[in-house]
Write a structure and sequence with these properties.
Elements (H helix, E strand, L loop, with lengths): L1 H20 L35 E5 H8 L5 H4 L6 E4 L7 E4 L2 E2 L4 E4 L2 E2 L20 E7 L15 E6 L12 E11 L4 E11 L3 E12 L15 E14 L2 E15 L7 E17 L4 E16 L12 E17 L4 E18 L11 E21 L4 E15 L10 H11 L5 E17 L2 E12 L3 H5 L5 H4 L10 E3 L7 E13 L6 E23 L10 E26 L3 E16 L13 E10 L2 E10 L17 E11 L3 E8 L15 H6 L15 E9 L1
Parallel strand pairs: 5-8, 22-25
Antiparallel strand pairs: 1-7, 2-3, 3-4, 5-6, 7-8, 9-10, 9-31, 10-11, 11-12, 12-13, 13-14, 14-15, 15-16, 16-17, 17-18, 18-19, 19-20, 20-21, 21-23, 23-24, 24-25, 25-26, 26-27, 27-28, 28-29, 29-30, 30-31
Length: about 725
Amino acid sequence: MPHRLFAEHLRLSAAAVALLSGMAALPSERAIAQTATELPPLPVDAETSTDYRTQSTTTLDGEALATRRAFVSDTAAVLGTIPGVDSATGSGVSGLPTVRGLGDDRNRVLIDGMPLTSACPNHMNPATSYIDPTRIGSIDVVAGITPVSQGGDSIGSTIAVKSVSPVFAAPNEGLHTEGSLSSFYRSNARTLSGAVSGTVATEDVSLGYTGSGVRARNYQDGNGNRIGVSQYAALNHAATLAARSDGTLVTLQGGQQFIPYEGYPNQRMDLLWNRSHFLNSSLNKAFGWGTLDVRLYWQEVDHFMNFLPEKSATGNMPMYTAGRDLGYSVKGEIPLSATDLLRVGHELHSATLNDWWPAAGGMMGPNTFININDGSRDVLGTYAEWQRSWNPQWTTLFGLRNDTVLMNAGAVQGYNTSATYAANAAAFNARDHHTTDINVDVTGLVRFEPGPDATYEAGLARKTRSPNLYERYAWSTGDMASSMVTWFGDGNGYIGDVNLKPETAYTASLSGNWHDAAQDDWGIKATPYITYVRDYIDVDKIKDYTGNASRAGFSQYRFANHDALLYGIDLGGRKQLAVSPSYGRFDLTGALGWVQGERLNTGDSLYHLMPINAKIGLDQKIGRWSNGIDARLVGRSTDVSTLRHEPVTPEYAVFDLRSSYDIEVIRFDVGITNLFDTQYYQPLGGVDYIGFRQNGSRLPYGPLAAPGRSFNAGVTVRF
């Protein structure tokens, strides 16, 4: 059935793709910028952002993105080269980014300025799943100390994913057209993907289209074992209309996504339908007093979960979710003097959610189970930020932000009037569900640049995040119902608490960046940090599941506030090794991340923390050839959450090879991931739930095995 749905949608899309393929395009790629740039100049420009770039800001674009597109289909996986950034395994296109030990909703993720909400009790449709890697123009990751103008309602990082900018005709060029077609293949899981993009433009108006599709079968691990229900498919379409004139840029985007199926070997459920539509408009205008940015956006999602046949050949448990995001943002940048810049802004993000499970027979009936009814989460944010350059050496940034979070949900009901369902529903419905959180963020940063070869930065921040709708309103203590609410890939079940308090994080960070004056030969950056989180949303254990083999060994938890402490260090470096007319340029890059976190009242490790890990790359470039060897070295995950039965994963080393040849009209990419077919287990990959089920629900269960060796190839044709 999923394959037929995919084929049907592909046929419906073929006409549109055929019309646009002749003029499709990938705009020319910019050079990679993986270290913080100099402070942006104060003069304003309708097409240039002057956002403050902290020493922990990393930008991926150009060659870095072009290389990653050939090897991944998940935008969250693209971030894996950045120090301190990892991805918790969801499925093929739905990984959950984690930054310095803080994951998922604790990070603010923006897709072309839109903060999108996971409309699923398993978070199978996170924000990064709504943009294919082939459509990305750049990604900015602001880790740790985040300026208030770039983040709110989060205690972690800000991840800003931006699609390719509109292309306009050059002066006196007339009508400009450009296009590209891409195709990629990966042998493991027999993954086949393709993309098409096109632009027609004058000097003042641009119309562009991008489309992409991917289909993958079940992957094999390093031992050659097939990992069941890991297959997936996705289709994306987006169109952009832009116009510019005299310091004004107006952009209107619209598109849709269709995921007909996405298997989850580490979850009880699978995704069998996810369709979304979005509109996103923006205005950037320069005035005599500064610049004004205005954005208005909307997205709706229809989501359906059930079992793929391999997970449950006879089982049937339909689960539907409908979500909507609607909001706006208004931002002004006002140069107060030659050395002072003021940023002020106001934002609204309104998210609504309905989550219901139709009767499925037996104990799951005769009623529809209502998990969340008319759930709403409205965030109203206002901020002011002052940036001052005291002299060429010293720069400061201070910001204050308020986010008012209004949440509510309606009455619920169980499948039937049995004692557990009736008591839980009655208790929940008798309560007042409306909550109002008044959250305040404060950020202070000081930067010192004593000369052209070093930069130092120190920062303090107070950041807040209110619970998501499931953390507050998932209500049933029934074994089956609670085990359907989990986005951790752990097989456990979770219950919400209306009385949860917002998380408040206090972070201190230092950063040193040393490099040659030209920033071309070598560079080293070190960033130690510490974060104390008051009312961190963790869990309290209610009971161990009993009476059902599929839940044996797993437990039920209630979300609860506990204080927590996280600390660690990110290291990054690069060195030019050699330059030769015969062999080209050789560069060595490296990154190391180490984070520790514990719940202060028990000393138990926080859940889903990456052990010490390093990423090392050797790059060679000569003419149009680019080649590289990458190594991922990960230590044993000894610090795990015993409370939540987090499995220990052994240390591993995985090596990848990549090569590309790029001429004006065509680019070839080839490579091998997991060169030595290493059997390894990602620390954030969750448990092997499908193996547990296929083994007759016999204990013990272990971590989910990662993919084995894959031979990869891709080609992009521009015209």
